[in-house]
Structures are given as structure tokens and as C-alpha cells.
Amino acid sequence: MLHSRRPPFTLLSLALVAAGIPGLAVAAAEQPVIEEVIIDIGGNEPAGGSNEIVIEGPSQPDGAGAGELIIEDSGPAAPAPTIEARTAASTDKEPDSSNVEIRIDDVRAEYGHFTRSNAEADSTLYGKISGFANWQPTPQWEFQVAGRVDGYDQDQRNAFTEVTADYGDSFVRYRGDNFRLTAGTQTVVWGRLDELPLSDRVSTADLTRFVLDNLEDRRRSNPMLRAETFVGSGKLDLVWLFDFRPAELPDQDSVWYPINRESGRILGIDPAIIPPAAVQNATIIEDAPSGDGGFGARYTRTHSFADIGVTVARTRQSTPYFRSAGAGRFQAEYPRSWAYGADAAIDAGGATWRVELLYSSDNPVTRTDLSYTTTPGIAWGGGVEFHPGDGDTRVNLQLVGMNLIDAPAIIDRDEIYSINGEIETPFDRARWRARLDFYAGIGDKDIYLNPEVAFLGWEPHELYLALHYFAGDSDTLGGFHEDHSSINLGWRASF
Fold it and tell me: Does the global pTM surpass 0.85?
């Protein structure tokens, strides 16, 4: 069937809190394709001195297909040049025909086969195509319209076929001498950690394929007004989510949906607490609240000793938390929460070290009497990234924790500790790439492994073979999806 994707004010609120990672996505971010790199040493147009990689307009590699995706990475210990990556459509040139660009920027097709006999399906198919039209009539003004179409197919007992259309980063942007103002739908990801950016408080999550995709592919454009300016030697980023867009959920029959009515399980909740019979025939209400999604501010700066960032936000979480709303009913909740975060990155000892800390005021939980409430919590993380022997192999390791503060008696997990990371190495003159992404719980069994081999010698095409393996205790992410381990064969291209 063919239908339009819902407008920016629908869907979602689940216990990724209960699953162990409230409002966070476990995925490794690939580097985007960059058409032009501008290095500004000490100029007036740095990214706030914070060593940000700024991907504007058509150079966004995936997801919405266009617009802007800012991924803050670690920087050097001493002040360094700012690197701003732009496509031809976004460079500040005098108006000419090259300032208009219309093209398909991302295409993907994938087949997945589930390896466990208890899975609700034998196989899945996924396809995506995204494109944009970008026009920059003057160096100050930029206009963009972007969209995408996704197709999903699942066979066997919970079979469904769905084709959805969605907007991408579509905006009007004005550049001044020392500021930039953007209005429209945009993709903005804040945070320091590679796999789980804790300060990511203004983006909209894409949960249609759970954790199978990279971080930039797990975010959707959401309506916002954004102002960026330079204060002192740092950058101030202000965002107002004028129309709340909840996370994009999969079809309720999808194996990736957070409530499995066939097995009678809820992601992050021990089935011994809520009996499967109470879930199997339940009514699931996904309705999201109307109105704005809140606001956020982030300041980043490069000091002589480290790159630092500070975040303050008052936003709704985009991922839904499903609470009990009476016998046989589960209602999605999207609580507003204050968030205060700080992060830093340091280059030392031939490695990049990252730390991040975030306090959030209202994390959704369920009491033992099945009533709903919120409680404050702290999320923290630290990591190191290095190249062994200064070679081409890259290793990224991170330790992350979440602790609820003064929580009442609840059925959710009140503390979660895990390690995650990525090991990546090219070989055969960089025509091939081997990679392993992993996530493992500490104290509780919770495992996700994603080894992948990709052929890169047919640019801009990429062929890959990947395994997604899940295992764990019943109230963990890996335990909930233990029957959904799969082997996936796919093709992707960024034009």
C-alpha cells in the first residue's frame, strides 16, 4: 500500500529507558561523502572553534537525504583549524547556474534472513530512495526541498508490506556576517560520544529498523527554527522545535516494534511482571501530543586543553514510553524533561578521549502497581578512539551508564551499565572494509554484535554482508530481540 508519512506531530514513546538506554540509539556513524572541504585557520567562519564537522545541504549522506546534519566529534587538545565541509550548492560563490542542484542522493536495497526458528518472520526486504532540490541564489540565501520514500516487506506469520513517503531537510536559510538562521525541517544531532550521544535532545529518532542502521540513518527531519552564532571564540547553537515530531515507529507487525503482541512482551520489561496474555490482545495507542517540542541551547568551544560543550534543553523525548492505561491498553507517553549536559574531548597519548555527562529531570517509569510516573536520572559515558600502530585500523571503545535518582519501587531497570564500540579496518588497497560494531551489558546479559564485510571498489556503490546477533536477559534489549538475529545482504550508494 502507498500512503503519505504522517505530519510532524504524531507517534511514539517506549521504554528505551527500560531497555537500558533512555532515548538513545545504538549505532555506529559512518563518515559522510563530502564534495568540498574548506579549512579555515583562524578565520571569521569557524564552527565555533569546537572542531565540528558541518555537513550542509546535499552532502548529507543518508536519512532525509538533504539539509544539515551536524556531528560533533572530538578535537585536538590544542586549538586547531576549523574544518567546514560543503557541497558545491552550499559554498559562498557568486550566483550562477551551479547554485541550483536537483538529484537523487541516496539509494539502498537490503534483504535480511532471520536465523532463529522462533522468529515471527523468515525474511525482510527494505528499500530507500531520497533526493533533494537545492537553490542558492545569493551567498546569503539558500532554499532546499528534500524527500524520501521507504519500502518495507516482512513475510510469514506477521507479514506486512508498507511504502511510506516522508519529507527530508527542507528549509529556508539566511547567512549573515556572524550568524546563520534556518527555518524548516532539519536534522540536528548534538553530543560527544560516538555511539550514544547523551546530549542528543533535539533530534527525532527513526526506530523503523531498530539498531540495524548507522546513527545518521536513524534520525528523521523535524520542524525547527535554528539560530547559530559565534560568541567569543565559541559557537552558540539555539533550537526551537516549533512542532513536535515523535520518533518514527515501525509497523506494529514488524519484528522491530517495541511491543511484541505475538510473544506478549514489552521491550525492557520482564515478562514475569506483565504476563504475556495481558499484552497479546492489547490495544496500543501511539497518539503523540500536539504543540511544540521544546527548545535547546548548546555552546561549544576549543580550549588549549580540550574541546568542550555545554547543553541545556527543555524538550519532549521523541522515543515513546508505553505505559499501562488500564486493562488491555498501552498508551504512548512523551514527557518533557529538563536536560543539563557537559562534554569534552582531549587528544593525548596518541588517542582521542571523550567524556560526557547529562542530568535529565523527568525519565518515564512504571511503579510496581503499574501506575506511571517520572523520575530524575543521570547518564554518563567515556571513551577512547585510536589507531593501533598508527595504521589504518580504527578502534573506538566506550563505557556508558544510566542511573535513576531516588526512583520509587518500579518495574523498570534503575541502573544500566554497558560497553560499546567499533573496530574497523580497510584491506586490499581499501577496496574492502571489515567492521565490527558491538554492545554488551555489564552485570546483566545484554549482547548485540554486528560484524560486516563491505566491497568499496565500485564507487559510489557499496555491497555488504552483515550479521546482526542479539542475546540477553528477558528485560534487556538483546533479550527482547533474541529471536531476531539475522544475516543481511545489501547494496547502498550515495550519489
Answer: no
